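User: Hi! I have a protein structure encoded as tokens and I'd like to know what sequence might fold into it. I'm fairly new to this, so please keep things simple.
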């Protein structure tokens, strides 16, 4: 959903920003525009997915000529109608959430960005003060990257877009290799390319007219809802109310709502509340659910998704990849990635988003429920065992983490959420011109949940107790089942075609890069890999595949222009 790139240089040139279009165009299929400052020192390119305001006047980069302000952003501001009513002295020309960002900055300066509740990465060019502001929302759902060199700075939504503009950024960051192999994603506090760094969640950077860093802040919205020792019934009422508000915000500007329904607690609850809101609307709005079809009919997640959809009387579409061209579909999906993501679930999500895109540009999911309401593992896994257990600081992702949270839990709700989940969601959806909305990651809901004591969140030794208690009358076998995820075993399915397309996609340099980690049977040239060896080492082969395709994309950036 939208993409942008910007260049700062006293050389007064645009530095070939058009070379980034192959890496941004899919994110913004509705329009793309180039803007340059009056002295040609700053240039912006934006590709737009029009969701809130489809009027061309809301295209970006958006310029406020009266204040000499220019804005480009990707994401959505969910509380923009409420904010718009506060800025009564700002002369609004559109009904978009884009203009509300400029109004907040024009009225309150950088601190005004803390009023925004949503998912976003933002650049504001202030020509009068001759500075550039980069900002990322405090939960960190949308990507933003920055690179400096003596002549200036480059920033944007994609590391490949940056590399396409400045070919000096094409060197691999060797420090990311071991982490990628172990975790299947690039550590979110750095990037896969040397010289490129991420803007961190909640971080606001001020750059001068030469691209130098002159200031930084950490901003986050006010925590309006906090636990105040209220009784359990009131806690449950507040959680239910905040989730309803979050859904109402995300159902706005969404005439054909679609929910990705796995049959798990999180997606089922999102579907349930969304259905209640849609059914009570005047006129009623039809809600559509989508899930993956199991390889063996009616097994695993498909069974639970069917049960949930049937109980709620919501139409359910079942999606299954075309088995006759599975290899081609996998390669095509992986090539939507920016930095490499080495987990097969990316392909499954990409297939679901592709099916959902037939209904519209917006998809609702239950992502974030496990991280916010403590749903992974066992209840005991979430609690710190002793005061000395925390060995390192993890990235800030939303409000401060509870003191009693364990080391494993801290990594799960920060590094894994940002580097794995958010990256997967953004690339699988945005690169197909679709916006994913995650109501369980709404700022007000997350803030309230983070203020709750663990004995409330994990009441009775149950993970996600507060979410499960929203399902009055639902059978225990549905609510307390083990977490399965999207059960769809690619190891078997792709093996039916002897892993067609896999060997051809993996080159020698990829195998050599990870030689210390690769199983011995996969260290030879991929053309000699046996089917049995791939099957037994499928996760390793998949990681090699995603890295090889990343290098192929990186090669293409060097050939552009």
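Assistant: Happy to help. Inverse folding works backwards from shape to sequence: for each of the 561 positions I chose a residue that suits the local structure. Here it is:
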């Amino acid at each position: 959903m939208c993409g942008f790139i910007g260049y700062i240089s006293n050389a007064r040139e645009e530095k070939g920003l058009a070379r980034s279009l192959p890496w941004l165009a899919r994110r913004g299929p509705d329009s793309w525009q180039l803007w340059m400052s009056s002295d040609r020192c700053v240039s912006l390119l934006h590709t737009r997915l029009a969701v809130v305001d489809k009027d061309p006047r809301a295209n970006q980069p958006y310029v406020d000529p009266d204040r000499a302000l220019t804005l480009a952003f990707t994401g959505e501001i969910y509380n923009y109608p409420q904010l718009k009513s506060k800025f009564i002295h700002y002369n609004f020309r559109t009904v978009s959430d884009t203009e509300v960002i400029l109004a907040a900055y024009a009225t309150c300066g950088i601190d005004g960005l803390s009023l925004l509740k949503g998912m976003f990465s933002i650049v504001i060019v202030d020509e009068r003060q001759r500075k550039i502001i980069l900002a990322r929302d405090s939960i960190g759902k949308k990507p933003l990257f920055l690179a400096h060199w003596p002549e200036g700075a480059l920033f944007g939504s994609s590391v490949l877009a940056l590399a396409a503009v400045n070919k000096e950024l094409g060197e691999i960051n060797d420090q990311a290799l071991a982490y990628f192999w172990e975790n299947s994603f690039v550590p979110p506090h750095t990037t896969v390319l040397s010289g490129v760094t991420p803007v961190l969640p909640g971080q606001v950077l001020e750059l001068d007219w030469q691209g130098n860093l002159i200031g930084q802040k950490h901003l986050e919205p006010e925590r309006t809802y906090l636990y105040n020792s209220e009784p359990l019934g009131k806690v449950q009422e507040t959680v239910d109310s905040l989730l309803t508000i979050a859904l109402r915000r995300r159902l706005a500007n969404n005439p054909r709502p679609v929910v990705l329904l796995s049959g798990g607690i999180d997606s089922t609850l999102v579907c349930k509340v969304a259905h209640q809101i849609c059914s009570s609307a005047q006129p009623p709005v039809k809600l559509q659910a989508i899930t993956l079809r199991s390889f063996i009919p009616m097994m695993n997640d498909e069974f639970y998704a069917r049960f949930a959809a049937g109980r709620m009387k919501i139409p359910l579409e079942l999606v299954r990849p075309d088995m006759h061209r599975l290899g081609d579909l996998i390669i095509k999906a992986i090539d939507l990635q920016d930095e490499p993501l080495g987990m097969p679930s990316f392909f499954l999500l990409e297939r679901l988003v592709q099916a959902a895109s037939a209904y519209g540009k917006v998809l609702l999911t239950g992502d974030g429920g496990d991280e916010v309401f403590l749903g992974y593992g066992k209840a005991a896994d979430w609690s710190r065992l002793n005061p000395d257990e925390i060995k390192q600081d993890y990235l800030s992702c939303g409000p401060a983490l509870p003191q009693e949270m364990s080391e494993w839990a801290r990594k799960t709700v920060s590094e894994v959420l940002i580097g794995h989940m958010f990256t997967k969601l953004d690339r699988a959806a945005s690169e197909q011109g679709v916006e994913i909305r995650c109501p369980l990651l709404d700022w007000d809901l997350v803030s309230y949940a983070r203020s709750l004591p663990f004995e409330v969140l994990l009441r009775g030794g149950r993970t996600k107790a507060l979410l499960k208690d929203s399902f009055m009358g639902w059978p225990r076998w549905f609510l307390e089942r083990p977490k399965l995820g999207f059960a769809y075993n690619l190891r078997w399915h792709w093996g039916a075609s002897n892993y067609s397309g896999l060997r051809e996609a993996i080159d020698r340099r990829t195998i050599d890069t990870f030689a210390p980690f690769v199983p011995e049977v996969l260290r030879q040239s991929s053309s000699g890999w046996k089917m049995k060896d791939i099957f037994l080492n499928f996760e390793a082969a998949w990681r090699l595949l995603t890295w090889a395709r990343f290098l192929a994309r990186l090669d293409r950036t060097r050939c552009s222009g």
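A useful reference point when you look it over: The chain is about 35% helix and 15% strand. Feel free to ask if any position seems puzzling.
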